[in-house]
Amino acid sequence: MSTIDTAPPDSTALQIPLARNASIDGMDAYRALVTEANQDYEAFWARLAREHLAWHRPFTKVLNDTDAPFYHWFEDGELNASYNCLDRNLINGLAEKTAIVFESDDGKLTHVTYQALYHRVCRLANALRARGVKKGDRVVIYMPMSVEGVVAMLACARIGAPHSVVFGGFSAKSLHERIVDIGACAVITADEQVRAGKTLPLKTIVDEALAMGGAAGIKTVAIYRRTGGQIPWINERDKWLHELEAAQPDTCEPEWVGAEHPLFVLYTSGSTGTPKGVQHSTGGYLLWAAATMKWTFDIKPEDVFWCTADIGWITGHTYICYGPTAVGATQVIFEGVPTYPNAGRFWEMIQRHKVSIFYTAPTAIRSLIKSADANHAVHPDSFDLSSLRLLGTVGEPINPSAWTWYARHVGGGRCPVLDTFWQTETGGHMISPLPGVTPLVPGSCTLPMPGIDAAIVDETGEEVPNGNGGVLVIRKPWPSMIRTIWGNPERFRQGYFPGELGGKLYLAGDGAIRDRDTGYFTITGRIDDVLNVSGHRLGTMEIESALAAHPLVAEAAVVGRPDETAGEAIVAFVVLKAERPSGADAKRVADELRAWVGKEIGPIAKPKDIRFGDAMPKTRSGKVVRRLLRSVAKGEVISQDTSTVENPAVISQFADAA
Ligand code: PRX
User: Fold this and answer.
1) Which family does it belong to (predicted)?
2) Are residues 298 and 165 part of one domain?
3) Which of 106, 307, 498, 657 could share a disulfide with 319, CB 3.0–4.6 Å?
């Protein structure tokens, strides 16, 4: 459970009006779409796929479920994602429209029109082809937030090479694992990335990762020159991105691919094992990226859209790279962090760029509330935010008080707040208010999108009555769903369509509850061993394995603890091979372990709190008693029955923080 605030919201005074003339205009229009989907599910999706996408070869089949749960959508249709996101806009007269306003960490602005974006993508696509990258080959992208990052993704899409973007905060080891698992033939990176005035070496990390072995297939490392800093260089393999682009023509015939052709693979954490490569299709994925831009964000030609996510996460894929461009929108892309040069940066940027739709994470809101409370100069009230008309949040449950602050101080009490629930696996929004439809309740993601058959069931797969909590499932396949786990179809089947629930329901991995009267959904947090730290998804097992790999460590267990700002904080319980450390010694070892996890996975996985004990609390059969550790992590008095624990004495040792 990562819901951290159950205090009653002070939102009763906030009567946020519905958006007028919205893409789905009113509850009746929403119900009509839901009915259309219920009456003829395939016809509903076929209509949307024809309306939202340009097909090179029209599809005749809609859903093929003979191989369920490996569903195929629009499978005999052919299209190209970059064509839909670029060429189509030029044909529609948007060549001179600004596609991207890029703001760098130090505030420099770059405007890129759709025409310019098209030429850059074509050049890089040609360059990749010239380097031997062809349809089906995989390309890893390890880039900062940049125009070049989006160009790289769309260039891969243009030649039918699935990309796998790795978040720039991941370590060399994490990058290496992903490069090897996906069997990449090229990496696109930058010399350095710049965040909050500091540079971080990306190319050096790529070299470190490639030197770990198993990556002989990498024939090209293309490097975007962001800072001009010193970097290692290997002739033949390493190429400057601008030189690759400059040598190529600025048009490029797209590779027409089948709708099921993998557009990308994005790694995410599960409760067990190594991160899994979530594979998405071209047609179904892009359809939902475009449709949700219209339905949830009600995107209009004059809007300025800003999603603050990183392209290394699914939100950056769907609502930076593909969604906004598929609908020909103007968007802001930001290189930096919300607190640099001060915590007013977001509000200042909304004011400067006249942002009308703003999409961010609850963690960012919570940390900015603190800063705003401490300093009025960085309070949203100190900026002109009148351009805003819609606000969104994603990634974690939003506590009602943060929701209300966001609605009141950022949205001025007039902008609907869209609490969008979805996942890497779902490709796009699953449950979300729609701005012209849904009366809002703080902390609730309200109702499923039309076409999405969400339900709450018990552990046997039976639907539970409203008001009773349970497990969130999606009952029917939908076009933008995960297709498989790269290289591990069995893990896909068992993990997402478990036999216990009958094998047909998609298991999201979240607990949820529906309101007794309205049927609104509220997500109560993950039901598995996945943590959500500042909206970053991490598996407890990954962190445990990283800790256990340290030479000093005998055993480690990791749990989450509710955290006021981050949503959840990582707490690690560690048994050393040597004696249990105490005092300054414990602090020194804890710091070393923290740095180690940063190196093994990335800084986002560093435990906030590390505790030491002589042994792990275990049952007689040797299972770590996690429920006890969760209570200890929260600082609760242990009132639970500990009679099944073999060594209850260690529990009190773990109660002391290092
Ligand atoms: O636990 C849910 C939480 O984030 C998980 C998905 O994480 P990830 O695949 O990294 O994708 C995040 C961005 C789409 C979910 O299983 N989550 C996401 N959105 C919400 C949420 N929890 C509550 N409310 C949300 N709006």
Assistant:
1) Belongs to the ATP-dependent AMP-binding enzyme family.
2) yes
3) 307
